[in-house]
Amino acid sequence: MRDIELYQKLLGFTAPWRVTAVAVQEASGDTPLGEITVRVGWPPDVPLHCPECEAVVPGYDTRPRRWRHLNTMQWKTFIEADVPRVNCLKCGVKQVPVAWAEDGSRFTELFEAYAIQVLQAVRSKVQAQWLTALSWDQVDRVMGHAAHNVERAVTRGVARRSLEGLRYAGLDEKSFGKGHDYVSVLHDLEGRRVLEVVPERTREAANTLWAAIPEPQRQAIDAVAMDMWVPYLEATRVAAPQALIVHDKFHCAKELNKAVDLVRRREHRELQAQGEKTLTKTRYLWLKNPLNWTDRQRERFQAIKVDALNVGRAWAIKEAFSDFWDYRYTGSANKFFDRWYFWATHSRLAPIIAAAKTLKRHLPGLLAYTKHRITNAAAEGMNAQIQLLKANARGYRNFTQYRIAILFHCGKLDLYPAGRPS
Ligand SMILES: [Zn+2]
């Protein structure tokens, strides 16, 4: 078998494209791998069709094109062709599409798919180097090629994505970059995928998130998990008015923890002023779930006269509230809340009273948990992944790249070019 026939078979391009020549360039300083260039051509006796109206039309001219393809052994491999343009009386001058690459791409679809797989499988250069046994420079080259295509891949994936059957969504904030920059993330809680990411956590941001979901699917959503952030709440009431808003129980716990901590800090200061060290280094004791206490923390707790301390009372009120989430009937949950609320608001502990009032203001969203037992914790696995992306990238220099990376890794998108073999 000659080289041309071999490559004709290996490439598997559809007729009438034919391999016309194979050129080998030995490795040198510039090309440490060596390069193979496969020339393919459209036989002159095969008629040309207009890509738009499909009429048989005369050729106009050709355009030289070059694509990176999968390696042959360790040899970098390129496809070259003079791609014909046709002159259609109806449609004008048009380039004939090639079967192996998307319009305007400098990579064949197979190479693009490979690059995407490498990038999806590895999240750091160290991993990529280890997996591929390539040098740093070579990894850079592969990742660089892939990076060009990631954005195209994500755009393609989002356009193809099906949102049929989306029942439970989650609206969540993530920190981004240094300081207090935030992004807002919309999750599909059952599908465990990220649907969209936008900068900030404003009303506007939430509107933009919702706009990513076509209206019919948006209006088929049963419930949305979120914290008690008012801009999220308002945007959701407009975008998906039928959806029940379910306040995330972890965010409610955070609210109460914050109140307990305020009580502790104030009391600690007062005790210290009298020379008492009762509350020194107890911060995490009051915030941690007692089930997760260490033996030392448990001993410490037993040594403290909890009932005599303000922080002890605040802690008891916070701990008691966790029973709220066990109720399955809205009526019983409501009764429990009333009793708890009376206790909390008569505690004479200002931070606890304030937190209780916040919860009361959002009571419908708390009670909704009896109907739809959703929280953004389902998105926690993804959040961990997003954190990892942030840590590894150390420079998503701008938000756009960060968004692309999140959707690429956490969007469960079909990223591959259309022509890939199944
Ligand atoms: Zn035409």
Question: Care to describe what's here?
Answer:
α5 (about 205-210) runs parallel beside α7, α8 (about 250-275) runs antiparallel to α13 (about 350-360) and α11 (about 310-320) runs antiparallel to α12. A hairpin with a 6-residue loop joins β3 and β4. The protein has helices at about 5-10, 110-120, 125-130, 135-160, 205-210, 215-220, 230-240, 250-275, 285, 295-305, 310-320, 330-345, 350-360, 365, 380-395, 400-410, and strands at about 20-25, 35-40, 50, 55, 60-70, 75-90, 90-95, 170-175, 180-190, 195-200, 225, 245. The longest helix has 25 residues, at about 135-160. The mean pLDDT is about 85. Among the domains are: about 1-100, no CATH class; about 250-370. By secondary structure, the chain is of the alpha/beta class. The chain binds zinc ion. Zinc ion (ZN) binds near residues 50, 90 and 91.
In short:
By secondary structure, the protein is an alpha/beta fold. Among the domains are: 1-100, no CATH class; 249-370. The protein has 16 helices and 12 strands.
